[in-house]
Amino acid sequence: MRVLLTGGGTGGHIYPALAIAKYLQRKEKQVEILYVGTERGLESDIVPRSGFTFRTIEVSGLKRSLSFDTIKTFWKLTKGIRQAHSIIREFKPDIVIGTGGYVCAPVLFVARLMGHLTVIHEQNVYPGLTNRFLSRFVHRVCISFADAEKYLSKYKQKVILTGNPRASEVIQVDKDSAHRAGTELGLDRKLKTVVVVSGSRGAKPINEAVMNMLEEVARQDVFQLLYITGKVHYDEIMKRVRDKKLDKARTILVRPFVYEMPELLSQTDLLIGRAGASTIAELTAMGVPAVFIPSPYVTANHQELNARWVVEHGGGVMIRESELTGKRLFDTVFSLVSNPQQLAAMSESSRTLGMPDALENIYRVMKELLTVTKT
């Protein structure tokens, strides 16, 4: 099987594609995988590090207003189409899969015109611009949230609910590695564990709210707070923590980054963070309740739509960034972790939303397409 994968710009597009690639290597004895991205996107660093063959094309997002940049974008798109055509003709894939981002547009569009099987995967409740465009051309549209179907109603005959590939990866954690990670992080197993994730680069409003509630966290003994600041903000935040004389507090742990997130999530009672699609896939697969603080800076406010879907099903609560304060965040967290029955119910509700078999579902879509074509 020859598979061409594409997706880029953010980790939310790249990691699902890599999850698919790794799963295919486990399932297929003979599989050749090529990943197509852009030189400027995160994929140019992440994909080669993962050991997959990587090729690039030139493409960028369209501007909403007419300008010289718009002309340059169209020129790049034309060039990207030619480059995509050349790569596809050379690689001769059996199937082409896109997971979002501007790079998918020329690759999937050209692949479809050339007669190749095409599949896209949408991670969010509200589909991105590229996937909405491609939905009319590709053979199958895999979605992570059932609610996404209403935004793709014109193409519902090709829409299939599969879940997010990240959900399948996090459930593979074994107890020994999870226990080891918890010990290395300094977790106290006698306390509830609340984790704050503000992203690899941090999120200032979340960081400010957390800083403003740390003194309250230090005064209670119901939960420990593992505060993952993001590497960019770590030094500044640690200075502020020391200034407050909280760096030795038993219930406060501060880390710049955690690489073993699946292992940590398996020991997390409540998570505080954004509402990206991969985050929600991981949380629901493991049944971890959350206090969502959706980013208001994303296209079509899709993180709030993601969060609302979980909240409406009982798997978490939401605080909009405009309403976020240290007091409100602490009061919300303390209320939840002080009520074991409520927390357990939220955990169960979250788990019922999870789709840990997402990778198998996507693989089945691919095999069915290939089988139909051969017959």
Automatic annotation (TrEMBL):
Pathway: Cell wall biogenesis; peptidoglycan biosynthesis. It catalyses: di-trans,octa-cis-undecaprenyl diphospho-N-acetyl-alpha-D-muramoyl-L-alanyl-D-glutamyl-meso-2,6-diaminopimeloyl-D-alanyl-D-alanine + UDP-N-acetyl-alpha-D-glucosamine = di-trans,octa-cis-undecaprenyl diphospho-[N-acetyl-alpha-D-glucosaminyl-(1->4)]-N-acetyl-alpha-D-muramoyl-L-alanyl-D-glutamyl-meso-2,6-diaminopimeloyl-D-alanyl-D-alanine + UDP + H(+). One of its GO terms (biological process) is peptidoglycan biosynthetic process. It is an enzyme of class 2 (transferase). Keywords: Cell cycle, Cell division, Cell membrane, Cell shape, Cell wall biogenesis/degradation, Glycosyltransferase, Membrane, Peptidoglycan synthesis, Transferase. Its EC number is 2.4.1.227. InterPro entries: GlcNAc_MurG, Glyco_trans_28_C, GlycoTrans_28_N. It is found in: Cell membrane. UDP-N-acetyl-alpha-D-glucosamine binds at residues 10-12, 124, 200, 303. Residues 3-142 form the Glycosyltransferase family 28 N-terminal domain. The keyword Methyltransferase does not apply. Belongs to the glycosyltransferase 28 family. MurG subfamily. HAMAP family: MurG (MF_00033). This is UDP-N-acetylglucosamine--N-acetylmuramyl-(pentapeptide) pyrophosphoryl-undecaprenol N-acetylglucosamine transferase. It comes from Collibacillus ludicampi. The lineage of its organism: Bacteria, Bacillati, Bacillota, Bacilli, Bacillales.
